[in-house]
Design brief:
This protein is of the alpha+beta class. Helix content is about 40%, strand content about 25%.
């Protein structure tokens, strides 16, 4: 369905850019196969108006002209839709080249490579790339989750989705209906930020906990999409990066190295346990559950209660 719409938009854009005079709706309908297949005039009109709005949102300048007979025509003048010359210095070119290499394991790899080739053909300077030949370091954003690509496309197209999601404290997956906002990578893991329709609130989902296929749903978003900065802060907060409190836990000696790396203080008790102080935000209870019997929460009391509740929920499942 997404491919068919993209082809229809491309054909409409080509028609509007290729004409020297305004084209009426009737002429456009007769020139584009997808419009010919529309079941009725009302169906065609709705489709055409949506497509026209989508092209304008993408930046195409479409003029509406009335002729002497009062008929309305449409065209997109090439001089109004021509991009200005692209001028990049060596540092900017190097930054683009580095960014393109990051996406070598994702669907964006081909698009990034093609974009660089077009920019170079247009005169973008070739930079001396320290990562090109002799470097042992290669920047990448690993993408192993099957849910990444459909969610990336859903975020781009503003399409609601459904998927089965297994929470950290549950052995069973639950279906979620989500309006996806953006994907964020944090500490090597991908997270989806969006609006959970059933809970009526924003939520963050770790892609590695999505089971089965991500399915698109028809219809528009019901909640307002926040700006990028706000969404990123939400992802960081839900992933536990924003520390607002300090927890004191007992950790079995020789275990829990990820917890030790975050500790601000470690006290060796000498009884097979160490005492740690850890700054934390949202999500620490789910993380502590993963260490099972190697962790005991001393304080605060509400964090201890959350961990106990999660362990009980896992035991019931």
């Amino acid at each position: 369905m997404a491919i068919a719409k993209a082809e229809r938009l491309m054909n409409l854009a080509l028609c509007l850019l290729g004409t020297r005079r305004p084209l009426s709706k009737r002429e456009l309908r007769g020139s584009i196969e997808a419009y010919l297949e529309a079941g009725s005039d009302d169906s065609f009109n709705r489709m055409f108006e949506r497509d026209k709005d989508d092209l304008r949102e993408l930046g195409l300048v479409i003029e509406t002209v009335e002729n002497l007979d009062g008929d309305t025509g449409y065209l997109a003048r090439r001089d109004s839709n021509r991009l200005p010359p692209i001028t990049l210095d060596a540092e900017e070119a190097a930054a683009l080249g580095l960014a393109a290499k990051v996406w070598q394991q994702a669907r964006l790899a081909g698009a990034a490579s093609g974009a660089l080739q077009k920019l170079r053909a247009a005169g973008m300077p070739e930079s001396e790339d320290a990562y090109e030949v002799h470097s042992a370091l290669e920047p990448r954003i690993p993408v192993h989750e099957a849910a990444f690509e459909p969610l990336m496309l859903a975020c781009r197209d503003r399409r609601p989705v459904t998927f089965d999601y297994r929470k950290a404290n549950s052995a069973r997956a639950e279906q979620r209906q989500v309006e996806p906002w953006t994907l964020e990578c944090w500490r090597g893991h991908w997270y989806l930020a969006g609006w959970d329709r059933e809970r009526g609130a924003e939520r963050v989902f770790r892609l590695s906990r999505i089971t089965g296929k991500v399915r698109s749903r028809a219809g528009a978003f019901t909640a307002e999409v926040p700006d990028v900065v706000t969404v990123r802060e939400t992802v960081e907060s839900w992933a536990g990066e924003v520390a607002t409190r300090t927890a004191r836990i007992r950790l079995r000696a020789g275990a829990g190295y990820p917890l030790r790396s975050r500790a601000t203080a470690v006290l060796e008790r000498g009884d097979g346990w160490d005492e740690l102080e850890i700054p934390y935000g949202h999500g620490l209870d789910a993380w502590l559950v993963e260490f099972g019997p190697d962790v005991v929460v001393e304080e605060p009391a509400d964090l201890r209660a959350d961990v106990v509740d999660r362990l009980r929920a896992v035991a019931k499942d």
